[in-house]
Fold this sequence. Notes:
Blueprint lengths: L31 E8 L15 E5 L5 E6 L5 E7 L2 E6 L5 E7 L4 E4 L6 E9 L6 E8 L7 E2 L9 E8 L3 E10 L7 E9 L5 E3 L5 E2 L4 E4 L7 E10 L2 E4 L5 E4 L6 E3 L10 E8 L10 E7 L4 E4 L4 H5 L3 E3 L4 E5 L9 E8 L2 E8 L7 E5 L18 E8 L25 E8 L5
Amino acid sequence: MRAALLLLPWLAACGDGLPAPSDAGGDDGPTTGLVRVQYWPQPNNLPGNAAAGRPVIFLNPDDSIALVTRTRDDGTANAFVPAGSSVTVVASDGSLWSYLDIQPGDELTIGPPPVPVEQVMVTLRAPAAPDGSTYWLYTTCDRGFPSFVTGIETPFGLRTALTVCDGGLTDLLLVSRKQFIDTPDKFIFLPGQRLSEGASITFSEPYLRAETGVIATSVPISIGFLEVRQLLVGRDLMLDTQGIGNTVMFASNGMASMLTPVPVHPDATLVTQLDDLGTGRRTGLHHVISWGPATTLTLVDFGELIDSLVRPPALDVAKREVNWFHGRDGVIPESAIVTLFVDGVPWTLASAFHSDGDGNAWLHLPVLPGAFGRALPGEFQTEVDAVTLHGTSSMRTRLLSWTPGGPWPIGAERTGRVLFQTTNHNVL
């Protein structure tokens, strides 16, 4: 998908030369206040794709202009706005990134923040795993690319270079691969390890057997192929990529399963992602992403999600709204992300979730002034992506800093679900 998510903390700042209003607010907090947005280019290293000088449009709740400004050298911009206002940043490629329903005091982030990394030499030791032939080490800084660490099981251990980030606090996952494909891997998971130059890390815990699976039931006949992925996530970053890329064709009984083993540990979170790959004349592709405590079996009942998976989002030009159906299974999302493609240029908006209580959701498109505005085409001349998010309240202000291709950020709630629907008129 083309929407975004993730955030970093930032320092408080004054608003772009504007005086603070005297509105003190009521018992529920101030109705007007300072909002700050931090823009990071995507990707950060493209020539001319700087964080500074990007147009920023703050609109009041009625779409009147509160402030039009540009990002500073550090990619930030401020404004005093009422609750329910919106802010839009124009990227160097012309794409638009908007937060709606913003609140006084919000610290919003757009784009993936740079993560400083460094290499340190460490010594690793671990017991030999029964039937183990090779050893691989995953860390929260390797972005899913493990290190080959065979030799770690010897008495002298293995001295090797590891990448560290986030001040050196890292989760470590040691996986012992087996020689035969039908033999499950074993693993040791060490959360919260401090890596520094010359550090010595010992994996003294006993090896655990990697075993888990996914069973999907009540799969609609319109879904012919489903890709099942499972990831072990520690400290919000992917640790183990085993289990990715298992494509399943459903039988006539509407069931499928994935039996590839994945490490399961009580100190980590298991993410399950099911992608509808489409077949025949389809209006779009769909994704279901859920996360929670790591268990040895994950059940997904598509019967509860069927309506939301087969009814694509639609653009109502007259109302300037994107409408979609999020389902009636009792899960009430907190947030929504919509990406609208106008003449091939994306406009991505993050908003509080709005629905009529009967499963019908919508997101209103703000009216941008002058040259920043977008003429909306007819429904069948554009593509619309709609994402509903449950269990993401702690990430409300960082929904537009997700890195495409990375795992969905896990918030403080530690359990949640994402439904991704799209109107893709190129899929036939």
